[in-house]
Give the backbone structure.
Amino acid sequence: MKFFNITLLSSAALLAAFFIFFVENGKTKAKNNSISFVPEEKKSDCKYDCSCFFPNEFSSQLNDYLSSYIYKSEKTGVWPSLNVAGLRKKARRGNLVFVPQQKHFTQDTFYYSYALLTPETSVLMDSICTDFNSRIKGSSVQQAKLIVTSMTRTISSVNRLLKRNRSAVKKSAHLNGNAFDFSFSRFAFHRSLTSCEKMYLQETIAQVLFDWRKRKKCWVTFEKYQECLHVVSRRN
């Protein structure tokens, strides 16, 4: 009887050892075969963590050339105005609308352009800003606003700009009232942004514009040296 009990205990210990071996081995295999993921509680952090996205992933794809859209811009926009008086005349006719400061974006100091756009372009810009704000909601920078750096220009203001900026073009969609620019290096926020947060905001607006461009609502150019995203509304 004593020998039987010892044999029984030995068998139980052996079975337990085999069980532990297979369980641990199964865990190791599952670990090796599993797909890494970001824990649920850290998902919100990924919105501005450099390790969670590819820098310039969308920005680099926004490369429409002037020749791609200038003809349609001239055809669907307004005729270029020589000066401010010409813009005012178009505004009275309803061809251009005044764009006031909004709660979901802010306007830069305009030295070479005026806060006027064609009605369709004004709606587009407003929709893009709303889309951007909805995508950053829940992040630590959800209060950040886009900065609009340029809207409609006159022939006179373009000539002044050409003297200061060699990369500026004389034949610009800004003359037709259906173009505007967003800064991708600066955002309106109550504190200084980290480099990762800036990159996150840059790629978020780039992705928004990529999606709107894909729907054929606009043309977009990532102007690296001007540090802006040049947007031209597109009428199908």
Summary: Residues 58 and 150 are 22 Å apart (CA to CA). Residues 45-233 form a domain with the Muramoyl-pentapeptide Carboxypeptidase; domain 2 fold (CATH 3.30.1380). The chain is about 40% helix and 10% strand.
